[in-house]
Amino acid sequence: MNKDPKYILRILFAKITIISFFISYSEVPAANKNINTNNNSNVNTNTNSNSNSNVNTNGNTNAAIDNALLLKRQQEIERKQEQLNSVRNKINTYEKRSDILENKADTIQNMLSSLDNEIRSAEDALNKTQLDLNNIQLSISEKEHEIVLKEDDMDKRRKFLEEYMRKLNHLDKKSSLEIILEKSRLTEYFREIENIISFEDRLRELLFSLKNDRTNLLSEKYVMEDQKSEQVALFAMQEEQRLELENNRKDREALLAEAQLEQGKIQELMDKGTEVASRLSAEINALQSLGTKIDFGAALEEAKTVSQLTGVRAALLLGVLKVESNMGNNVGGGRYTNDMNPAQWDRFKSICSELGYDPKDRPVSRKPCYRDSSGNCGGWGGAMGPAQFMPSTWMGYKDAVSKVTGHNPPDPWNLRDALTAMGIKLSKVDGVTSHDRTAEHKAASIYLAGGNWSRFTWYGDRVLKFADKYEEAIKNN
After folding, report:
1. Distance CA 455, CA 255 (A)
2. Strands (DSSP E) found in 163-318
3. Are 365 and 388 spatial neighbours (Cβ–Cβ below 8 Å)?
4. Which DSSP helix (H) or strand (E) runs through 7?
5. Quick one: CA torsion of 80, 82, 85, 86, rounded to 10 degrees?
6. Which string of b and e fits 184-220 if b means at least 16 CB within 10 Å?
7. Which of 315, 347, 381, 435 could form a disulfide with 339 if both were Cys (CB 3.0 to 4.6 A apart)?
8. 334 in helix, strand or coil?
């Protein structure tokens, strides 16, 4: 069966036309008969009958139209609710994937920290090996210098010995008689012979000692060179280990960058999904709303007044008002007994009692329906008035609002009080009263999500988008 309202209206109007036709058709002969034969009672009877028939028909038509519109609205709410549930399921999936990526990134970060420690240890070992190499090279250089000195000394002594040997050879060419005759005494001759022999023996010992010293120095040098070779090999191995660790670190950095990039993409999808979910919630709220739209001129004047009282820019107040309740039109179509967390009931009833309201008649935001795996709805509504304050939050601001507006008690459904509470809350962020745009963006995001505001910056984007438009309107006003 086609449930399109236009189709139903066409059918209803067709029925009305047919009924009117038959009524008109039946009235003509009745009138003729009244002229010719009947008295006025028949005319009155026919007139009353037609009048009742028209009333009933119009009443049925209006009821049918109302029912059709209600049916269409309910179908639209159900359709949007299904879309909202689908979006939220996707967000949940993204969140799970984001958690996995975050754990992966944390694991890689821990691995990088461990690799950094290993690289530092490898570099320390390299530095120590390099220091040992430098010390060995210094020792080798010292030994080489000592060897050079020993060799110089040996050369000098060898030359002296060679000179001495030439003199001995020269003496050998003389006869004993010639040598004796050259000496005044025979004892001098023998003493000189003994000195020569003794000096020669001593010189040979020195040469032998120098040779041994040189040999020992060379041995020590060879040992040091072997040590140096070992240290060079060790240095090369340690350098290879360090390079391998560096390569591992680069690989892990690449994996971390990849995980962070994917996490960023997932976050973008989550943000977009959250924005769509917020829009759908607002549309559902609008369809369910019992609020009364606020005239922009009246809202602007109130915003200007509250701006002077709180220091918050009037356009920013209007931007939040637009996003929160569509300028007061969407204050909610819910009731506290169905849509509000029972933990909030006592505060809500206390607020209503102070203001003389029947809590059963006060509109609050409907609870969102987040379908779980069993198909049950979860989540709570219960926000009050144009600024959409929860009862517990309002209780924390009511005294400050009363002090500013002079209303005691203040009314969350009153535009001046609602905007004042909004302004006080926004002004808590440093820079908002100086009209710093970054601070305003943060304050708007906090207005929605509190301490978790950094994941809902899209809300701040929307608020400032409307605030910019209102700022232009204020300037041109």
Report:
1. 24
2. none
3. yes
4. helix 5-36
5. -100
6. eeeeebeeeeeeeeeeeeebeeebeebeebbeebeeb
7. 381
8. strand
Which is nearest to 318 in space by CA: 397, 423, 409? 423
CA gap 470, 317 in Å, rounded:
10
- Range of weakest confidence among 44-58, 280-294, 350-364, 435-449: 44-58
DSSP string, 411-443: -TTSHHHHHHHHHHHHTTSTTTTTT-HHHHHHH
From CA 218, how far away is CA 210, in angstroms rounded?
12
Which one is predicted more confidently, 153 or 302? 302
| Residue with the two structure tokens 């020569």 | 196
Preceding amide of 409 cis, omega within 30: yes
* pLDDT (tens digit per residue) in 377-404: 567 889 999 999 999 999 999 999 999 9
> Distance (Å, rounded) from C-alpha 324 to C-alpha 195?
123
Under a CB-based contact definition with an 8 Å cutoff, are residues 299 and 265 in contact? no
Q: Which of these, 308, 300, 306, 309, lies nearest to 327 by C-alpha position?
A: 300
**Residue for token pair 């100086």:** 434
**Distance between terminal CA atoms of the chain?**
52
The closest of 350, 421, 347 to 387, measured between CA atoms, is 421
Q: pLDDT tens digits for 454-466?
A: 888 889 999 999 9
Lowest mean pLDDT among 162-171, 353-362, 423-432, 466-475: 162-171
Q: What is the pLDDT of residue 63?
A: 56
Q: Which of 219, 227, 217 has the alpha carbon at shortest distance from 134? A: 227
Q: How far apart are CA 382 and CA 366, in angstroms?
A: 6
Scan for tokens 């320390």, then name that residue. Answer: 124
The whole-angstrom separation of Cα 182 and Cα 48 is 188
Tokens standing for 115? 């690799």
Question: 380: closest CA among 412, 426, 320, 332?
Answer: 332
Largest CA distance in the chain: 208
DSSP, res 384: B
pLDDT the model gives residue 380: 86
Residue by residue, DSSP assigns 148-161 as HHHHHHHHHHHHHH
How many helices and strands in the chain, by DSSP H and E? Answer: 12, 0
What distance in Å separates the CA atoms of residue 83 and residue 90, rounded to the nearest whole number?
11
Structural tokens at position 326 = 């569509």
Sheet strands (E) in 290-382: none
Q: Left if phi > 0, otherwise alpha if psi is -120 to 50, otherwise beta: which for 39?
A: beta
- Annotate 14-65 with three-state secondary structure: HHHHHHHHHHHHHHHHHHHHHHHCCCHHHHHHHHHHHHHHHHHHHHHHHHHH
CA atoms within 13 A on the CB side of 45: 9
